[in-house]
Amino acid sequence: MNHIDLTVLQQLHRWRAQGLHAVLATVVRTWGSSPRPIGAMMALCESGQTVGSVSGGCIEDDLLQRYTRLGEQMDHALGWAQPPRRVTYGVTADEAHRFGLPCGGTLELALEFDPEAGQLQQLIEQLLSGALVRRSVDLGTGGTTLSQTDTPQALDIDAHFLHNVLGPGYRMLLIGAGTLSEYLATMAIFNGFVVTICDPRAEYMASLQIQGVQRTAEMPDDAVTAFRPDLRSCVIALSHDPKLDDLALLEAMQSPAFYVGAIGSRRNAQSRRERMQEHFDVPTETLDRLHSPAGLSIGSKTPAEIAVSIMAQVIAQKNGNLETSH
């Protein structure tokens, strides 16, 4: 689940709690090129306000014309009291061009009318608590059920039900406070990650200026254990101190974290690899999970540039688009 999806649900809840009519649109299928992935969500209010996105803009405009006061009002006799609908955009080349879809692109949306405010609040509370929630929508009646699950799953839809597993959001644990940590944390927050910075060195933590991050002064390996990395987590060692980095990386590499990285030169990376094999008997396949030196090779020299290279590699790994690894 991306950070924007939670924002969509929160705004949708505010509208419904105020008694305003609203529609939740979810991308449920795509064919060919598509501007937004399956599961992307958008909400629109009867007043014409929107949050989120399901395309590059033209489909949003069409939805606004159909379902808000900016257009011709609801174009169906049932008005807002109708069951979910499935609509497809881009079936023909002319329609794809009209709606600004890439060549050959087609997408299908599920539209839910006036989702119940109380259940939206329950869903948001569960997501904010870190739960993984399966939201099931009866496409015949619009009835919705929530159940917690332990396994992330792709969105699934058939003739009768839409099942979408939401949350938890992506998380990042940074080992070592400093300028690079501040730059990287800022970029991660901008990309929807919840960031924790760990450093047991009081003087380093005291100089940390960034807001909006969680902080811990635990020893890094204990911090990794407490962090409980999952499939939506990444752990990155930035301290340059083997006493802090090594044990934390050992814990992280044995977790389900989708990305584990450490900064340093290639020589330092090789020395770390040899230490871990010699002193901890770490298998080669485990060490191969470690991105070190962390970051894509873009010739970065400054802390800001290094942060860009690391964040780009993290995002590529998250999106399954990382062709090479260290």
UniProtKB/TrEMBL annotation:
Residues 15-67 form the XdhC- CoxI domain. It comes from the Bacteria. Pfam families: XdhC_C (PF13478), XdhC_CoxI (PF02625). Residues 172-314 form the XdhC Rossmann domain. This is XdhC family protein. The lineage of its organism: Bacteria, Pseudomonadati, Pseudomonadota, Betaproteobacteria, Burkholderiales.
